[in-house]
């Protein structure tokens, strides 16, 4: 099977046919399905293309599948409460889950609970890591968006003071429905969507509000493309609005005509859903937009022409649509995950380590024993080159005592100047003759 | 010979002697000119005007115009100078417009007078300057200010003591009129000023470490610069100066903060029919400018030899403070009561004022330091300052700290009402200064306890403080709370602040300040101690009352309440629950009285109300029909209420209860959409039947359609359609369209049964809802079909007849026509029913107008492109309808509309008509 570059994951609320389905969004075929339970909104994430994690609706459970296996769900993690949203850091080391008004942070490979953040006053509705994992953005029903510095979350504080958020953005007037982090790590831009009919664009570095977008109906989901040319907002009236984050092109010529309106009728709305659009995702190249709605369909849209390319029908309200680069393990059923995923502990790490110090700091990592990929080859080549370079360096440093002394050099110089003079003289003779 | 003889003769003739004889008249000379002349008088009726400029020029009584006076202002002769000043004063007060015309030259010459050697001239010059400056706004003086301040500096550093003394009057003058301009040159002026009042005369004027205790307040025995009065004045001036400086500083900073907040205003409204572009980082997309002039000049950095230094550097400021504080302390010690030994009752009123002056100057210095440090994020200087003066201040300022307690009433009697105020001021500024020295470590220090006691007392006594005092009191409270270790003492303070909050007048600024402070404190400390919890609940319960005041306080109170509700505080939620009904009451409620942007806050409150009962919904619906509620807000309200349904729609697992009965909600939506209340409809019904205008088209008889449409001037049409749209969105969120239609159609039937006349808004809402919720497959109940046909026919008839009569207003008639046609296109049964009805009853029509208009309805329907295909399917019933009109006895052959009908029906229905 020729694998596409990118695949789309989707889940619905009913979970009748499957919990998570992987689609080839160009052809609309389901590549792979994973069964057992159903996933809640903003509760799906993919760990480095090896594991799928999904938070169940209404149950305090996180389901985990290893991507290469097609059978029933392989792992269930019981959490302290119903998980309202789930996010994994881009380097897959951390997993953040919103449980009621608290955010729990786990280390994925050890299962240690590293921190519990309780600054929200109501249920956390959405979590999002920046693309470098340096910051975590959370939005809640208490109208607040908070930004956390990941390093400070993980730092064990001596005074038992709870970790403070870096910023608390309180300009929304109603519950937050979605947040989206742009590209750029600590300097990226964050969009938050809320029931108060607005999306707000924030600057993560300064914490300033950059722009406020006002829509006609409550916004349920928001997304931007990779280049941040467009902002998409899925509203509860079933429309998806596109906002161009660039200035309108300056027209040097204008055609003046009577029906001026007709020119400007070029709309920026994706119409097609009949119920609230609850999730959005944009493909890596920014040409394809996926949307999931409560009308039990997920739609694939072409961004430039604003056409609906494909409708994928589901059995319940669509809760997640996510674009992801095709995981290698999806194609090869014999492959194994490169790291183990432990089930998450229920207590904080510090409390646990009081009992036994010996286990602290050791993390079991399964080293892959499969044949090397191209990347690995590159890396080994690089390593060889570095080693060579280091050797060269060492050799040159050992040669140092053999360097010609100053005297020798001076003699050499003298000799050369003499020869030069002789040459000049000969040339001058020749010329004068 | 003869020739020669003649020559000789001529020669001789030339030199012949003329003989004058006595008694004979002297012969006239050859070169005599007649010098006599004749003259005649010319009479001039009026003087020639000497020039257009001079004549209009106003003059003084001594006939001097402004140019003469300006020339003489700097004359070498004293008396001329003086007289010209007097003349100038006379002239300028009579013609103030001259000031702005000649401002440049006036200021130039007047500023020279600042350093005039003659006492009287100088004094007069200053008063003239005062006249000029008072008449000129600050932005006009701005460009000349460097000149003025340079001369002022000159005068302040002049050798002659008199000139120095008078320069202070000028400084006062400028402080009074242009505090902001003065602060721009504060570096030189402050330095010079401090030099003036102190006796320090150092060669290097930069603030160095050595000067720590070098200063000493200038006291020259016998000179006028030594008395208490003088000192008091100096302190006052210093205070004014620093206040102006700090104000300027805060304005600058708040403006920077504003510019951050200004991006709030960068709001983009997304429009459906247009591409939205929102360039975020494009150059000039939002230039929040700090529009202040910047003038390139050689001041601080390059010329360290001159006395000016940049006080925005904490180090420089530290130097300044260190040079000034010893002077102030000295001043303090001279008048301060010697601790313990004497009773405080000896405090003289002058002494109190001096003490007050000293303290407020110190306070200003500290505030300045703090803000400078905050700006630079470098608190080393602040800590250095704390360390330096901690002990000194504690030992000097605090020994007999609450300066009021003993003798306030006595003094109040002695010297009027002003004094107790200054004593309070004195105490508060002492508190505030010391609050800078508080830190978490040294909580057990006795002075801290004394301050806390004083703060508590003042808070409880409360009411009579001025706004500045309240601000500083609250500042002290905030700092105190940070320091206090035990929650118990914090709750004491909270209670005290609450009593202050209670004692203030509801609309006063104090109330607002206290409210904000309380809110801040309670959010962090509100739940930690039982007594502070009770304060919290009392505080929240007091908010609704504030909201009802409709002032600026009410929006703040609303925001606080909203924030608490968003944080799911039980107190706030119950409070909302309790008061919401009265807020949204259409008669007395606050919702309709607020401005549109504050209404939004109330709508947010509604979002938090949990059980939302029918009564509240009903009064909300009534509010929605009111014109004071903008259409955007109505749509927003509907949207927000509908979002409560959103989460329920996701999955059956989510255990979320709706705050309202969904049947109630549906009827709420419906009554919002129809644009007027049942009561209004009924009343308009009655009116229409009594007074039938002749000009208006008469409604169809009831066997054709049971309703008639009335026009109503309400809110604009687009707004109504927006509301209807969001209502339909609400319908679709509740359940599937099929189910919703079942519910809505009963409402429609009920409405149309009870009403004879509906407004065009209502008709539109009904039609739109029907179009939105039904599909081709929808099963139609007979009754609903009837009623919708009624509605459709009435609408079409109304539009056509308005059109024919030429009184249709285009915006709504077009929309409603479209909607009706959509209805007919989407549901064939309605079209069938309509045609059959026309066929059956048209013969009963007796009014030719009716027949004409019904025919025109058919014509226009036949002309509609979308409808033609469907009409072709039901040719029979359409034919019957057309035929019955054609055969009507009132349809005369010759009239135009009959021909039209004939033509259209033959084209669309492909049938030859026969009569």
From TrEMBL, chain A:
Comp. bias intervals (Polar residues): 391-405
Keywords recorded for this protein, A-Z: Repeat, WD repeat
Top-level lineage group: Eukaryota
Region (Disordered): 389-409
InterPro entries from the UniProt entry: Beta-prop_TEP1_C, WD40/YVTN_repeat-like_dom_sf, WD40_PAC1, WD40_repeat_dom_sf, WD40_rpt, WDR18/Ipi3/RID3
GO cellular component, one term: nuclear pre-replicative complex
Name this polypeptide is given: TEP-1 C-terminal beta-propeller domain-containing protein
Record organism: Patiria miniata
TrEMBL record, chain B:
Domain of life: Eukaryota
Major localization listed first in the record, in broad terms: nucleus
Protein location: Nucleus, Nucleolus; Nucleus, Nucleoplasm
Keywords: Nucleus
InterPro entries cross-referenced by the UniProt entry: ARM-like, ARM-type_fold, Ipi1_N, TPR_TEX10
One annotated Gene Ontology cellular component of this protein: MLL1 complex
Domain Pre-rRNA-processing protein Ipi1 N-terminal positions: 140-242
UniProt keyword Nucleus, yes or no: yes
Ranges where the TEX10-like TPR repeats domain occurs: 535-909
One Pfam family here: TPR_TEX10
Family of this protein: Belongs to the IPI1/TEX10 family.
Name this protein carries in UniProt: Pre-rRNA-processing protein Ipi1 N-terminal domain-containing protein
Source organism of this protein record: Patiria miniata (Bat star)
């Amino acid at each position: 099977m020729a694998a596409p570059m990118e695949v789309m994951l989707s889940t619905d609320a009913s979970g009748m046919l499957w919990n998570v389905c992987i689609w080839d969004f160009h052809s609309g075929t389901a590549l792979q399905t994973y069964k057992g339970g159903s996933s809640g909104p903003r509760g799906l994430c993919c760990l480095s293309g090896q594991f799928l994690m999904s938070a169940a609706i209404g149950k305090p459970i996180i389901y985990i599948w290893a991507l290469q296996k097609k059978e029933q769900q392989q792992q269930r993690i019981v959490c302290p409460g119903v998980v309202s949203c789930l996010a994994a850091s881009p380097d897959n080391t951390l997993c953040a889950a919103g449980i009621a008004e608290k955010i729990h942070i786990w280390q994925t490979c050890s299962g240690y609970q590293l921190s519990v953040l309780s600054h929200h006053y109501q249920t956390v509705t959405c979590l999002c890591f920046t693309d470098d994992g340096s910051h975590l953005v959370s939005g809640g029903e208490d109208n607040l968006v908070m930004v956390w510095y990941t390093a400070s979350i993980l730092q064990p504080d001596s005074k038992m003071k709870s970790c403070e958020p870096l910023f608390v953005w309180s300009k929304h007037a109603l519950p937050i429905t979605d947040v989206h982090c742009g590209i750029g790590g600590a300097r990226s831009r964050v969009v938050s969507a809320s029931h108060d009919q607005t999306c707000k664009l924030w600057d993560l570095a300064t914490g300033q509000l950059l722009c406020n977008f006002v829509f006609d109906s409550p916004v349920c989901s928001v997304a931007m493309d990779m280049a941040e040319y467009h902002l998409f907002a899925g509203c509860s009236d079933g429309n998806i609005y596109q906002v161009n984050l660039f200035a309108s092109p300056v027209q040097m010529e204008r055609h003046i005509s009577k029906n001026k309106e007709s020119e400007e009728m070029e709309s920026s709305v994706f119409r097609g859903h009949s119920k609230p659009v609850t999730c959005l995702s944009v493909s890596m190249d920014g040409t394809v937009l996926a949307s999931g709605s409560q009308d039990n369909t997920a739609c694939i849209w072409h961004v430039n022409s604003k056409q609906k390319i494909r409708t994928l029908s589901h059995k319940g309200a669509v809760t997640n649509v996510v674009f992801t680069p095709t995981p290698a393990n999806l194609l090869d059923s014999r492959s194994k995950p490169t790291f183990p995923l432990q089930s998450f502990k229920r207590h904080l790490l510090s409390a646990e380590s009081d009992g036994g110090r010996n286990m602290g700091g050791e993390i079991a990592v399964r080293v892959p024993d499969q044949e090397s990929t191209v990347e690995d080859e590159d890396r080994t080549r690089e390593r060889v080159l570095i080693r060579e370079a280091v050797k060269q360096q060492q050799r040159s440093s050992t040669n140092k005592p053999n360097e010609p002394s100053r005297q020798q050099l001076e003699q050499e110089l003298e000799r050369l100047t003499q020869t030069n003079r002789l040459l000049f003289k000969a040339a001058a003779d020749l010329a004068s003759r | 010979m003869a020739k020669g003889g003649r020559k000789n003769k001529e020669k001789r003739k030339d030199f012949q002697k003329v003989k004058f004889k006595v008694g004979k008249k002297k012969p006239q000379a050859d070169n005599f000119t007649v010098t006599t002349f004749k003259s005649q008088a010319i009479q001039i009726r009026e003087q020639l005007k000497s020039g257009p400029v001079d004549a209009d020029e106003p003059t003084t009584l001594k006939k001097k115009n402004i140019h003469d006076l300006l020339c003489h202002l700097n004359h070498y002769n004293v008396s001329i100078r003086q007289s010209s000043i007097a003349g100038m004063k006379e002239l300028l007060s009579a013609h103030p417009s001259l000031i702005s015309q000649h401002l440049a030259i006036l200021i130039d010459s007047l500023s020279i007078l600042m350093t005039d050697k003659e006492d009287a001239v100088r004094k007069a010059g200053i008063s003239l300057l005062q006249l000029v400056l008072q008449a000129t706004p600050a932005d006009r003086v701005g460009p000349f200010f460097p000149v003025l301040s340079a001369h002022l500096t000159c005068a302040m550093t002049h050798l002659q003591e008199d000139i120095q003394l008078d320069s202070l009057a000028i400084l006062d003058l400028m402080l009074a009129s242009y505090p902001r301009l003065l602060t721009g040159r504060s570096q030189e002026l402050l330095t010079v000023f401090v030099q003036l009042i102190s006796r320090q005369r150092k060669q290097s004027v930069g603030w160095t470490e050595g000067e720590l205790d070098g200063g000493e307040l200038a006291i020259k025995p016998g000179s006028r610069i030594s008395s208490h009065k003088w000192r008091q004045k100096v302190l006052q001036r210093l205070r004014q100066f620093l206040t102006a400086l700090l104000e300027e500083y805060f304005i600058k900073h708040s403006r920077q903060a504003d510019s951050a907040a200004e991006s709030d205003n960068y709001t983009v409204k997304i429009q459906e029919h247009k591409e939205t572009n929102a360039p975020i980082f494009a150059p000039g997309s939002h230039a929040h400018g700090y529009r202040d002039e910047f003038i390139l000049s050689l001041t601080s950095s390059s010329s360290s030899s001159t006395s000016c230094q940049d006080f925005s550097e904490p180090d420089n400021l530290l130097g300044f403070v260190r040079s000034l504080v010893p002077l102030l302390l000295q001043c303090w010690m001279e008048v301060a009561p010697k601790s313990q030994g004497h009773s405080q009752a000896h405090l003289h009123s002058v002494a109190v004022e001096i003490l007050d002056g000293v303290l407020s100057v110190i306070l200003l210095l500290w505030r300045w330091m703090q803000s400078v440090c905050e700006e630079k994020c470098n608190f080393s200087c602040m800590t250095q300052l704390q360390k330096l003066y901690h002990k000194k201040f504690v030992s000097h300022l605090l020994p007999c700290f609450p300066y009021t307690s003993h003798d306030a009433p006595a003094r109040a009697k002695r010297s009027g009402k002003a004094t107790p105020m200054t004593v309070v001021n004195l105490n508060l500024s002492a508190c505030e200064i010391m609050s800078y020295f508080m830190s978490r470590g040294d909580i057990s220090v006795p002075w801290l306890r004394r301050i806390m006691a004083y703060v508590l007392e003042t808070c409880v006594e409360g009411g009579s403080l001025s706004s500045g005092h309240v601000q500083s009191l609250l500042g002290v409270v905030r700092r105190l709370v940070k320091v206090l270790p035990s929650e118990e003492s914090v709750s004491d303070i909270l209670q005290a602040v609450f009593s202050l909050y209670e004692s203030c007048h509801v609309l006063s600024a104090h109330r607002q300040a206290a409210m904000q402070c309380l809110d801040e404190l309670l959010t962090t400390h509100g739940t930690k101690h039982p007594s502070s919890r009770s304060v919290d609940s009392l505080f929240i319960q007091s908010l609704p009352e504030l909201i009802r005041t409709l002032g600026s306080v009410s929006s703040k109170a609303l925001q606080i309440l909203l924030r608490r509700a968003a944080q799911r505080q039980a107190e706030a939620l119950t409070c909302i629950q309790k008061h919401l009904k009265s807020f949204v009451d259409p008669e007395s409620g606050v919702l309709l009285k607020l401005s549109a942007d504050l209404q939004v806050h109330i709508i947010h409150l509604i979002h938090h109300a949990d059980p939302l009962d029918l009564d509240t919904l009903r009064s909300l619906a009534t509010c929605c029909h009111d014109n004071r509620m903008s259409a955007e807000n109505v749509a927003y309200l509907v949207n927000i209420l509908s979002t409560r349904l959103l989460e329920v729609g996701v999955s059956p697992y989510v255990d979320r209860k709706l705050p309202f009965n969904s049947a109630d909600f549906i009827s709420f939506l419906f009554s919002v959409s129809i644009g007027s209340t049942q009561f209004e409809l009924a009343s308009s019904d009655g009116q229409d039947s009594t007074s039938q205008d002749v000009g208006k088209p008469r409604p169809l008889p009831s066997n054709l359609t049971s309703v008639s449409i009335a026009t109503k001037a309400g809110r604009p049409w687009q707004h109504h359609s927006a509301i209807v749209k969001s209502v339909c969105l609400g319908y679709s969120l509740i359940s599937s369209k099929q189910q919703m239609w079942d519910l809505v159609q009963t409402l429609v039937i009920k409405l149309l049964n009870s009403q004879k006349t509906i407004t065009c808004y209502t008709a539109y809402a009904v039609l739109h809802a029907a179009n939105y919720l039904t599909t081709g497959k929808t099963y139609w109940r007979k009754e609903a079909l009837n009623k919708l046909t009624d509605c459709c026919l009435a609408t079409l008839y109304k539009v056509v007849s308005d059109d024919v009569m030429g009184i249709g207003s285009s915006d709504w008639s077009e929309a409603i026509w479209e909607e009706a046609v959509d209805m007919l296109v989407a549901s064939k049964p309605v079209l069938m029913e309509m045609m059959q009805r026309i066929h059956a009853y048209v013969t009963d029509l007796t009014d030719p107008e009716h027949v004409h208009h019904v025919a025109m309805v058919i014509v226009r329907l036949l002309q509609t492109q979308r409808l033609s295909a469907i009409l072709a399917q039901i040719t029979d019933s359409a034919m019957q309808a057309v035929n019955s009109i054609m055969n009507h006895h009132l349809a005369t052959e010759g009239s135009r509309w009959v021909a039209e009908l004939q033509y259209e029906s033959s084209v669309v229905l492909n049938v030859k008509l026969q009569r």
